């Protein structure tokens, strides 16, 4: 049995249904305007596979600027109808348009909500007859070999849900910043919102006097486990001693482990005076300058903290 061919046929079959659906007339203008004019939520409902797709559609809407959630018709009949308000809009999904659980709550949805958008294969279905707007999800054939399991139809329903969400995003001028505000734990949210001050280390920093012997500085570096010692006078940044500085020092003929650490340190180190700099910008600065530790100071070079390359990476900060 050629499973590669079978898989290809499934994808081609579902893609064909999506292309055919793109040619169908749907009154998107009226649907989008109705949602934009509403001051309520867009509540999605459905049972079975349609319900699972409905949950995803609601999640996509909610994360892209449209207040939305999913309710199950059975739970709605047992109290969840109390979540619906007069200004809300319902998106009801049923391929057949005849799902008993959904049909049973439709009179209550019409009584409680503002408008109903239906998704079914036929606008003459029991479901769609009771709706105000109709989005067709009919397919000529399911991708499954017995033309029964919801495959092409659920893919089409999901894609139409995405089309609805994207239209609303465009209408609302939804930006990356807006998306990140709803996804603060995602990579985009971290990139746009996490700042140096949120991650920098302020306690137990390896701060040393520039005059101490190098061997004492090495001990301090080892204890702090940052691979770097920070030289300072009265907490004012004086220099940096990194692992690289130490290795280069040891290659010198006149290397003296008892000499003052300032003789081997970088006395013109890179530092940052803006603790509100975005963390991803700090990562870019660190990588560009090929350093591992960035010291944060005030405008007078008084040390406020430090942030290590590994801290940024561990926090999921990326460029």
UniProtKB/TrEMBL annotation:
<dbReference type="Pfam" id="PF00571">
    <property type="entry name" value="CBS"/>
</dbReference>
<dbReference type="Pfam" id="PF01380">
    <property type="entry name" value="SIS"/>
</dbReference>
<dbReference type="InterPro" id="IPR035474">
    <property type="entry name" value="SIS_Kpsf"/>
</dbReference>
<dbReference type="GO" id="GO:0005975">
    <property type="term" value="P:carbohydrate metabolic process"/>
</dbReference>
<dbReference type="InterPro" id="IPR046342">
    <property type="entry name" value="CBS_dom_sf"/>
</dbReference>
<keyword id="KW-0677">Repeat</keyword>
<keyword id="KW-0129">CBS domain</keyword>
<comment type="similarity">
    <text>Belongs to the SIS family. GutQ/KpsF subfamily.</text>
</comment>
<dbReference type="GO" id="GO:0046872">
    <property type="term" value="F:metal ion binding"/>
</dbReference>
<keyword id="KW-0479">Metal-binding</keyword>
<dbReference type="GO" id="GO:0097367">
    <property type="term" value="F:carbohydrate derivative binding"/>
</dbReference>
<dbReference type="InterPro" id="IPR004800">
    <property type="entry name" value="KdsD/KpsF-type"/>
</dbReference>
<dbReference type="InterPro" id="IPR000644">
    <property type="entry name" value="CBS_dom"/>
</dbReference>
<dbReference type="GO" id="GO:1901135">
    <property type="term" value="P:carbohydrate derivative metabolic process"/>
</dbReference>
<feature type="site" description="Catalytically relevant">
    <location>
        <position position="142"/>
    </location>
</feature>
<feature type="site" description="Catalytically relevant">
    <location>
        <position position="183"/>
    </location>
</feature>
<protein>
    <submittedName>
        <fullName>KpsF/GutQ family sugar-phosphate isomerase</fullName>
    </submittedName>
</protein>
<feature type="site" description="Catalytically relevant">
    <location>
        <position position="49"/>
    </location>
</feature>
<dbReference type="InterPro" id="IPR050986">
    <property type="entry name" value="GutQ/KpsF_isomerases"/>
</dbReference>
<dbReference type="InterPro" id="IPR001347">
    <property type="entry name" value="SIS_dom"/>
</dbReference>
<keyword id="KW-0862">Zinc</keyword>
<feature type="site" description="Catalytically relevant">
    <location>
        <position position="101"/>
    </location>
</feature>
<dbReference type="InterPro" id="IPR046348">
    <property type="entry name" value="SIS_dom_sf"/>
</dbReference>
<keyword id="KW-0413">Isomerase</keyword>
<feature type="binding site">
    <location>
        <position position="72"/>
    </location>
    <ligand>
        <name>Zn(2+)</name>
    </ligand>
</feature>
<dbReference type="GO" id="GO:0019146">
    <property type="term" value="F:arabinose-5-phosphate isomerase activity"/>
</dbReference>
<feature type="domain" description="SIS">
    <location>
        <begin position="31"/>
        <end position="174"/>
    </location>
</feature>
<feature type="domain" description="CBS">
    <location>
        <begin position="200"/>
        <end position="257"/>
    </location>
</feature>
């Amino acid at each position: 049995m050629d499973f590669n061919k079978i898989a290809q046929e499934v994808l081609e079959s579902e893609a064909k249904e999506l292309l055919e659906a793109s040619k169908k007339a749907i009154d998107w203008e009226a649907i989008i305007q109705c949602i934009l004019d509403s001051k309520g939520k867009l509540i999605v409902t459905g049972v079975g596979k349609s319900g699972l797709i409905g949950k995803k559609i609601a999640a996509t809407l909610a994360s892209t600027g449209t207040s939305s959630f999913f309710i199950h018709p059975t739970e709605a009949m047992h109290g969840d109808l109390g979540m619906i308000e007069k200004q809300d809009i319902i998106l009801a999904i049923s391929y057949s348009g005849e799902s008993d659980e959904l049909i049973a709550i439709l009179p209550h949805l019409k009584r409680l909500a503002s408008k109903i958008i239906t998704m079914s294969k036929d606008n003459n279905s029991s479901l769609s007859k009771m709706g105000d707007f109709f989005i067709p999800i009919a397919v000529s054939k399911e991708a499954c070999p017995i033309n029964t399991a919801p495959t092409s139809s659920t893919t089409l329903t999901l894609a139409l849900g995405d089309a609805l969400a994207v239209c609303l995003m465009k209408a609302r001028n939804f930006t990356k910043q807006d998306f990140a505000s709803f996804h603060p734990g995602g990579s985009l949210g971290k990139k746009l919102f996490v700042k140096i001050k949120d991650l920098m280390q302020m306690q137990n920093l390896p701060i040393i006097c520039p005059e101490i012997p190098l061997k004492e500085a090495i001990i301090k570096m080892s204890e702090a486990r940052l691979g770097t010692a920070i030289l300072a006078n009265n907490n004012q940044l004086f220099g940096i001693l990194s692992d690289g500085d130490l290795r280069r020092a040891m290659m010198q003929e006149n290397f003296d482990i008892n000499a003052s650490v300032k003789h081997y340190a970088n006395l013109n180190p890179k530092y940052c005076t803006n603790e509100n700099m975005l963390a991803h910008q700090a990562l870019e600065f660190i990588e560009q300058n090929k350093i591992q530790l960035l010291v944060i100071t005030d405008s007078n070079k008084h040390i406020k903290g430090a942030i290590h390359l590994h801290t940024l990476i561990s926090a999921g900060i990326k460029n």
